[in-house]
Amino acid sequence: MSDIDPDQFRVKTEPYYRPVGNEIEQYAAAYDVRMPVMLKGPTGCGKSRFVEYMAWKLQRPLITVACNEDMTASDLIGRFLLDINGTKWQDGPLTVAARIGAICYLDEVVEARQDTTVVIHPLTDHRRQLPLEKKGELVDAHPDFQVVISYNPGYQSMMKDLKQSTKQRFGAMSFDYPQAATEAEIVSHEAGIDLKTAERLVQVAERSRNLKGHGLDEGMSTRLLVYAGQLISQDIPAPAACQMALVEPLTDDADMRDTLQAAVQTFFPEITDSSKVA
User: Fold this and answer.
1) pTM assigned to the model
2) pLDDT in tens, 178-200
3) Which of the four, 146, 225, 237, 255, has the lowest number of CB atoms within 10 Å?
């Protein structure tokens, strides 16, 4: 038994999540049979918020790992550390999740090296076990444990992709930016701005998304729209808010910035002070 308190990893309050289909029911069904789940979709479209929401709804602890290219297998499963009494084993987040029955969410998993991600293999098939070779221990996963991974297919390459031996251990769900009306509703709620202003932000984003593959790797995400809306709610003029939150983060190319600024000017031709929610 683990002496770690699972409650520290619980999502205490309900996250705002606006469903766009039957993704909640699909995920709940997958969790009921403890199927590992892979979420695919562009940056900032709501994958992480969805996992957080489902952890809250299912009342399960959630341990999130932001994957990166320097992450090693030991960062996931654990390592021996020196202390005043000699050496002490410290569980990694994957091991902790397996012991306490948490959902372990590996965010942007393709950023991790392939020799790192293979450590999840025995946890994502019928064995549901995690060998701790350095410690000489075989951890049997808690009955409530589940692995969830996410990645952006738009960033895939031959050097950054999941092995088929990894992919075929998961059920998969595809995410995308919501329909315009739904996305505007989300931006309005999250940023605290009126719906009309949110709709204009979404229109700017749609222009940018049409430029994907034509000078932009990605269009403006829902997350960036929320950032812009939050600045507007703090009385930053809309053009300046869009410049800071939408245009500058997206590209360093001067010509492309001019193109995006033109889209902003199209939908925010005048500075108004009526966009904050009363």
Assistant:
1) 0.90
2) 999 999 999 999 999 999 999 99
3) 255
